[in-house]
C-alpha cells in the first residue's frame, strides 16, 4: 500500500469535496493507495499541511481544491529536498492549471489517474522567494483574482470573475515598468499589465499563451502596452481566439530569467493570490515537481 496525504479545501468551487470524500477515499483504497486527509482551515494552512506531509514521509501529496490551494501546497513543497509526487485534484472555480494539463475533473477519473502512479516532471516558477505553478502577473487587472469573494464564486462560479473584470476594466491605469530578461533588450515603457505564464491556460482564457509548455524550462512573458478601454476590449476579444500575440500593443517573449522594476507601487499576483510587490525577479525551475497527469 502507498500512503497519500490528501490536502483538500472544503470551501473550493461548489464545495464538492464535502459530498465526495468517502467515495474518493474508498476508490483510492481499492487502487492500493491509503489516503489520510487534511481539511484546510484558512489562509496558509495548505502550505503548513504540505510541509508536515513531507516531514511525515508520505509517498505522495494530493492537493484538492482550486488554484489557490494548489499555490499554497507547492509553496510548502518547493523548497524541500525530498519532494514526493503531487496530485492536482481540480475542485475550484477556474482550475487553470488542471485545464492546461488536461487533468480529469470527474472524481472517478481523477482517482484512476492517481492509481496509475505515473507522475511526470514539470517546471515551476519562482518570483522572489515564492513559487507559482501557473502564472505570475502585475497590474490593476490582475488584482481581480483575489478580490472576488469566495461565497460569490460558490454561488455563480466563473461569472463572478466576469462581473469583477468588467468593473475593473473601467478603472484601468497604466504603470511604468522596466523589464530586463535574459536574451532580451531592456524594455522601459508604460504597461496595463504583464503576465508570466508557465502553462497555456490562464484566467479561463485557454489560448492566452498558446506557446507555453510546462516542461520546456521557459516562462512565456506577455505584457500589454498602455492603451485605452476600447483597445483593451479589442485585445481581450483577440485573446479569446488566441490571436493577440502579433498585436503591436503586445510584448511577447520566452525567457528563463527576468527582473521587473517600477517607480510606482505594483502588486504581484501569483497563481491568483497576492504575492508581494515589485521589484521582483522571476525564474523558471525546470522539472522541479513530479505531477500525476
Ligand atoms: N476552511 C476554509 N474556510 C475558508 N477559506 C478557506 C478554507 N480553507 C482554505 N481557505 C482559503 O481558500 C483559498 C483557496 O481557494 P481555492 O483556490 O482552493 O478555491 P476557489 O477559490 O473556489 O477556486 P479558484 O481559485 O479556482 O477560484 C485560500 O485563500 C485559503 O485561504
Task: Note the topology.
Elements: E1 2-8, H1 16-30, E2 33-39, H2 45-55, E3 60-65, H3 67-77, E4 86-90, H4 96-101, H5 107-115, E5 119-127, E6 130-132, E7 135-138, H6 144-147, H7 150-156, H8 159-169, E8 175-181, E9 187-197, E10 219-225, H9 229-241, E11 250-255, E12 257-261, E13 267-270, E14 273-277, E15 280-292
Parallel strand pairs: 1-2, 1-3, 3-4
Antiparallel strand pairs: 5-6, 5-15, 7-9, 7-13, 8-9, 8-12, 9-10, 10-11, 12-15, 13-14
Helix pairs in contact: 1-5, 2-3
This protein binds adenosine-5'-triphosphate.
Overview of this protein structure:
- The protein folds into two domains: 2-117, Rossmann fold (3-Layer(aba) Sandwich), CATH 3.40.50.10330; 130-288, Tumour Suppressor Smad4.
- 30% of the residues lie in helices and 34% in strands.
- It is built from nine helices and 15 strands.
- The strands form two sheets. Strands 5, 6, 7, 8, 9, 10, 11, 12, 13, 14 and 15 form an eleven-stranded antiparallel sheet that branches. It has a four-stranded parallel sheet with strand order 2-1-3-4, sandwiched between helices.
- Helix 1 (16-30) links the parallel strand 1 and strand 2 (33-39).
- Helix 1 (16-30) packs parallel to helix 5 (107-115) and helix 2 (45-55) crosses helix 3.
- The longest helix has 15 residues, at 16-30.
- The model has no long low-confidence stretch (mean pLDDT 89).
- The chain binds adenosine-5'-triphosphate.
